Amino acid sequence: MIIKTANPQDASLIADAILEAIGLAITTGLAGENNSQKDVHDLFERLAERTDSQYSYLNTRIAQTDDGVPMGVCVSYDGADLKRLRRPFFHEANTTLGWGLSEEKIEELPGETEPDEFYLDTLMVLPQFRGQGVAKALIADAKCKADAVGKPLGLLCDTDNLRAFKLYESVGFEKVGLRPFAGHLMNHMVWE
Length: 192
Prior knowledge:
Number of domains: 1
Shape: globular
Number of helices: 6
Low-confidence stretches: none
Strand order of the largest sheet: 1-2-3-4-5-7-6
Number of strands: 7
């Protein structure tokens, strides 16, 4: 297995990973009544192509086979950069999905991470590669990035996703509380 930094051509794969990570309920909520899941996918694909977005290819690492077949995706970044990095998401959502959020409202919205942690935003392993250590390798890669900036690695895990919760615990994460995200309550977990 090779883990490499993504490039703009990986944007569709990154969008696939984000939609799988957030799940159908949140994707449907983002789309609202007037948009489709494809609209949401297209929004995340555009964000992945950018250099200034939390979902940027620059913040994404891809695990692949030795012959270049994608196995999994991990998006992570310094929590101190969240407000700046998420601005493009809200601007794209306003334009594409018709959200109509003001700059003031965007500033007031709670973040999914804190400035004092390095945030593992998205983790997805393609179905045919699950159970082969890909997720653990991508998490370890994100932990190295967190260690390099001297911060713990943090993430949110859906309270109903026991399989993911157990995976995160098995590598060193501990639950430190609960946090709302997109209308859903999530476990906030940190690996010091």
